[in-house]
Design brief:
By secondary structure, the protein is mostly beta strands. It is 5% helix and 57% strand. The strands form 6 sheets. The chain has a 23-stranded mixed β-sheet that branches. Strands 4-9-10-7-8 form a 5-stranded mixed β-sheet. The protein is globular, with a radius of gyration of 26 Å.
Length: 736
């Protein structure tokens, strides 16, 4: 049973920058494009949470984690800054190999960003964010089993528009953002936006004497809108980003290693913001993309063409997995991802009882990665004793994992809705997908032996194809203009993939595709003269061959498929405006996910599935004068303890996440009818600390005897943490 009460569609009402004039008590209507045509959120028969431009700005939603924390049941794990593994409705994957597909995908202006390294777009100058919960197997460019995050950036208009923001916060955080758009020539308008972020480190490394986890990130986006005629529009977009932040801080939580001479005198401090990494990691990520969207309105409907190219080149050096002052596990990789996609879509006019959408989709994605892992094994440690027994060697083992994988995906889809009566609609859709992944996987032993206890160096070709048909059937009934109910049966699909493992045979053997059947009912309503909105969704998702990665006690990572898993739940969204200028909202979720057929993990909780989540908040705007107002905004968030990858409950410690009480807030003073704003803001004001990634690597620094007798060693953890308390002051200007 999964219960999610999400008062988040509420988000479109926060508009303190618009005016100081009399405010309506009614909730604003929200228009979304989750069904690939503009529809009122309350008339859209799918589970979708929408964040408006004003809510994004006032809540300082600047990253994927800011989105995930405000959607109950939505969580993520992130082994590095450059790799994010999202989960929604229990659909998750801890696999981040090149070419791996994610259960939850990001689409920016309908362009797929689905690789594990794509989940850090700079969220600025947005029109809205839509979070579609559950399998999206028909209308979205890339089939997903868990959900889709649709980010819609602002388009240039025909009138001059400009805004700018500058912020300063603790850790010497400096942020500058600006946008300007307007007409360029007859039928041509343009827009340019940029964002620049700088910040000192969030943790201190006692070993190197330096701050780590800094931020140094710049992004720019340009868009042009060309309208040769009233029925033809071309949107050209280009973006570029560079991120040279330092790597993440990996802490060491546990007792001092005993019986290992090299670590004599090392005593972990157990302070989450003080670390002892032997090296400080550094990243250099460069992203760029171009796209062309053509919309042609005809007498029969709209023809849409979306052509896009993207590249993401990431270099990460010296990423430490243990956080100890001597060499243990140090990783580095160079990942170059390039993709081309083309979608052709025809959307019928809404001028009759039957309306439909049909299209073709093609994606070619090539990922070339070279990853290095240095493992230093010491005599007396559990892993060292195993390595010595297998290879007769200790010390440094240096391996290179090389993979070049190309994905070619082809899809054809169609969906139609027929108005059976004025109140009852029936929707039937389906998508046929053909995916092929091929390439080469190699392991090179550059020092010592194979870290995974396998054979010598190897290189092997691989290739496999998968086909899937993903149908959807929905019936929705409108009791009146304010109340609607629907029922849906739908299927999602995620293709298989390959991992470089201990030998050529396992490297050339793919893990299989994952499928999800979703059974869902929903109820959407508005009451009290549009001042109260209440939406509720119940669902049961049955997963087959769920793709998982888990760590064995030997330190080996096993990648494959769980036989079956099930996640049940209910999701509820609520918002209310009880008085002028006052908005209140709140979310609660209860999730029940179990592996049903997964070897020794059968009956255990599915990964990244928090059983309880809570998010409540509100805002109040008071007019101080005809040209001045004051807005107070705050929210509280809670996610119960949950595992980040499949675990026996008795050994779940290093793999657990969750937080008790995160509070965010802001006070905004608006001047000159909203042209200027001064904002005092804070995030994680309670300074809550929780794990965003953990591994069971105790055997590389402890011996068997200490693990058996020392509870602190047996429960040791080497986590990555969330960001600590941050606060600051922002100045905003907007051309009204």
């Amino acid at each position: 049973k999964k219960l999610s009460i999400g008062l988040t569609a509420l988000t479109t009402i926060l508009a303190p920058m618009s005016s100081v004039a009399q405010q309506s008590f009614a909730l604003e209507e929200i228009v979304v494009t989750a069904e690939k045509r503009a529809m009122n959120l309350q008339k859209t028969p799918i589970a979708v949470t929408a964040f408006s431009e004003n809510f994004i700005e006032q809540s300082r939603i600047e990253s994927f984690s800011d989105v995930a924390s405000r959607v109950p049941g939505f969580t993520f794990s992130t082994p590095f800054k450059t790799r994010t593994l999202p989960s929604l409705r229990g659909a998750s994957s801890s696999i981040y190999d090149p070419g791996a597909d994610q259960s939850v995908a990001i689409f920016v202006d309908e362009v797929y960003y689905g690789a594990p390294g794509d989940f850090d777009p700079d969220l600025f100058d947005l029109e809205r964010i839509e979070v579609l919960r559950g399998p999206q197997g028909t209308l979205f460019g890339r089939n997903v089993v868990g959900g889709a995050i649709s980010v819609i950036t602002r388009n240039p208009g025909d009138e001059l528009y400009a805004k700018a923001e500058a912020s300063y916060g603790n850790y010497n955080a400096l942020t500058a953002r600006a946008t300007v758009s307007g007409p360029i020539a007859d039928g041509v308008s343009g827009q340019i936006s940029f964002s620049s972020q700088r910040r000192d480190g969030l943790a201190f490394n006692r070993t190197t004497g330096k701050d780590v986890d800094t931020k140094d990130k710049d992004s720019i986006r340009a868009k042009f809108r060309i309208t040769p005629s009233d029925d033809f529009e071309i949107l050209l977009s280009g973006d570029y980003g560079r991120d040279t932040s330092s790597g993440a801080a990996r802490d060491f939580i546990g007792s001092a290693p005993v019986g290992i001479p090299e670590f004599a005198g090392f005593v972990p401090d157990n302070d989450p913001r003080v670390i002892d990494q032997q090296r400080d990691s550094q990243m250099d990520r460069e992203t760029m993309g171009v796209s062309a969207v053509m919309n042609w309105d005809t007498d029969f409907g709209r023809f849409v063409s979306i052509t896009a190219y993207r590249r993401n080149h990431t270099i990460l050096d010296d990423e430490d997995a243990i956080g100890a002052p001597l060499p243990t596990l140090i990783g580095a990789y160079d990942n170059d991802l390039q993709q081309f996609s083309q979608e052709l879509r025809f959307v019928s006019n809404n001028d009759g009882p039957f309306n439909w959408i049909a299209g073709l989709y093609y994606l070619r994605m090539n990922t070339d990665e070279v990853a290095h892992l240095d493992a230093t094994f010491y005599a007396g440690t559990s892993f060292g004793d195993i390595q010595n027994a297998v290879f007769g060697t200790l010390g440094l083992h240096r391996n290179a994992f090389i993979q070049d994988v190309t994905t070619n995906s082809y899809a054809v889809y169609a969906q139609g809705t027929y108005a059976v009566t004025e109140a009852l609609n029936l929707t039937v859709g389906g998508r046929f997908t053909h995916d092929r992944k091929s390439g080469t996987g190699a392991l090179q032993i550059e020092g010592g032996g194979n870290i995974f206890f396998g054979a010598d160096s190897f290189s092997t070709p691989f290739g496999e194809s998968w086909d899937a048909f993903t149908p959807k059937v929905t019936a929705d009934y409108n009791f009146n203009d304010d109340i609607m109910a629907y029922a849906t049966v739908s299927k999602g699909f995620k293709s298989g993939g390959f991992s470089v493992l201990e030998d050529a045979q396992t490297t050339a053997t793919p893990y299989g595709p994952e499928q999800a059947w979703n059974y869902e009912i929903g109820f959407k309503s508005r009451w009290w003269e549009d001042r109260l909105q209440f939406n509720i969704t119940g669902f049961n998702v049955e997963y087959t061959n769920m793709q998982v990665a888990t760590t064995l006690p030997t330190g080996q990572t096993v990648i494959g498929n769980a036989g079956k898993a099930r996640v049940r739940g209910v999701e509820v969204e609520l918002s209310v405006t009880p008085a002028e200028g006052l908005l209140l909202w709140g979310n609660y979720s209860y999730l029940d996910g179990k592996y049903k057929d997964f070897g020794g993990f059968s009956g255990t909780d599915t990964a990244m599935t928090p059983p309880h989540s809570l998010s409540v908040g509100g805002s109040y705007t008071a007019n101080l004068s005809e040209s001045m107002y004051l807005t107070f905004q705050g929210d509280y968030q809670y996610k119960a303890t949950h595992v980040l990858e499949p675990r026996d409950p008795a050994e779940a410690g290093p793999f657990q996440s969750g937080f008790d009480n995160i509070i965010n807030g802001s006070i905004t003073l608006g001047l000159a009818e909203g042209q200027w704003e001064l904002v005092l803001w804070g995030k994680n004001l309670t300074n809550e600390t929780y794990t965003v990634y953990g591994q069971d690597l105790r055997g590389i620094i402890y011996g068997d005897a200490q693990l058996a007798t020392d509870p602190l060693a047996a429960g040791a953890n080497f986590p990555r943490y969330n960001e600590p308390r941050t606060y600051g002051l922002s100045v905003r200007w907007k051309l009204n």
